[in-house]
């Protein structure tokens, strides 16, 4: 059974006694040791389990350890899976180099030394656990960034809604103030026009009425310009106060 709380190790040997002996050496509460009796069986198990390490016997019938490792290196899922070759072959360099060429990361020589096996296996188990921990941390960070992006988008939408609401309030307030400002010069303008219509005064007095009309007209023009500038002024003011973190950078 594949216990997700345990780390999976695959041991491969065509001789059952060798598998039992290796399993006894490696046995640990935090390890799930899976056994395979051939290269083909080992390759099949690699698609069913997530292994930290493979201990692979070199001398096996049909498909030996070198062939098995070579096939592993050609598959995307298993190409980076560490392989420790277990062998009784001579320690001559030509045999060792052949194993490294096929993808071995290290050798275990028979007769097996318990301390050496445990030491080498523990090194690769620790590396595996560190990689898994980094991967989980990376996945959590990606999820957090994704959540922050969604939250950031929602904040932008809410902020835009608030800005539009504030703009409307400001527009209404300024429109009311501007209407009040318009009212006085408009009354002056209308009053002086009425006086002109009824007047029998001298030219000097008429000139005074015309000057009042001109001044009132200029004040009305200023108020109209204020109304036209309200939107642009308020937009710049709100935009300068708005700061959103860009998570895509």
For this entry, give a set of tags.
249 residues, Rossmann fold, Helix Hairpins, five-stranded parallel beta sheet, 5 strands
Layout of secondary structure:
Blueprint: E1 7-12, H1 16-26, E2 31-36, H2 39-45, E3 51-57, H3 65-73, E4 83-87, H4 93-101, E5 106-109, H5 114-198, H6 203-241
Parallel strand pairs: 1-2, 1-3, 3-4, 4-5
Helix pairs in contact: 2-3, 5-6
Rg on CA atoms, Å: 43 Å
CATH topology of the largest domain: Rossmann fold
The CATH superfamily label of the largest domain reads Response regulator
Approximate strand percentage? 5-15%
**What is the makeup of the main sheet?**
5 strands, parallel
Overall number of structural domains: 2
Q: Which stretches are poorly predicted, pLDDT < 50 over at least 5 residues?
A: 242-247
Strand order of the largest sheet: 2-1-3-4-5
Number of distinct beta strands: 5
Number of helices: 6
What overall form do the CA principal axes indicate?
rod-shaped
CATH class bucket of the largest domain = Alpha Beta
Distance between the termini: 45 Å
Please give the CATH architecture of the largest domain.
Answer: 3-Layer(aba) Sandwich
Could you describe the 3D structure shown?
With 249 residues, the chain is α/β, with parallel strands linked by helices. The protein folds into 2 domains: 106 residues, Rossmann fold (3-Layer(aba) Sandwich); 92 residues, Helix Hairpins, CATH 1.10.287. The C terminus is likely disordered.
């Amino acid at each position: 059974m594949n216990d997700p709380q345990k780390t999976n190790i695959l041991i491969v040997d065509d001789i059952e006694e060798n598998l039992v002996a290796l399993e006894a050496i490696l046995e640990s509460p935090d390890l799930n040791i899976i056994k395979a009796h051939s290269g083909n069986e080992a390759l099949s198990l690699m698609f069913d389990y997530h292994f930290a390490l493979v201990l692979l016997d070199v001398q096996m019938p049909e498909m030996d350890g070198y062939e098995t490792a070579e096939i592993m290196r050609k598959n995307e899922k298993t190409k980076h899976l560490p392989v420790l070759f277990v062998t009784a072959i001579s320690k001559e360099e030509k045999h060792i180099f052949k194993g490294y060429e096929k993808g071995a990361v290290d050798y275990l020589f028979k007769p097996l030394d318990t301390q050496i096996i445990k030491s080498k296996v523990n090194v690769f188990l620790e590396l595996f656990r560190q990689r898994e921990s980094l991967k989980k941390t990376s996945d959590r960070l990606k999820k957090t960034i994704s959540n922050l992006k969604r939250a950031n988008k929602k904040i932008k939408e809410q902020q835009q809604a608030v800005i539009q609401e504030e703009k409307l309030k400001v527009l209404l307030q300024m429109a009311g103030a501007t209407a009040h400002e318009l009212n006085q010069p408009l009354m002056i303008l209308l009053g002086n026009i009425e006086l002109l219509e009824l007047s029998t005064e001298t030219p000097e007095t008429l000139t005074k009425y015309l000057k009042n009309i001109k001044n009132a007209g200029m004040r009305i023009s200023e108020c109209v310009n204020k109304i036209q500038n309200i939107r642009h002024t308020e937009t710049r003011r709100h935009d300068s106060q708005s700061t959103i973190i860009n998570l895509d950078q």
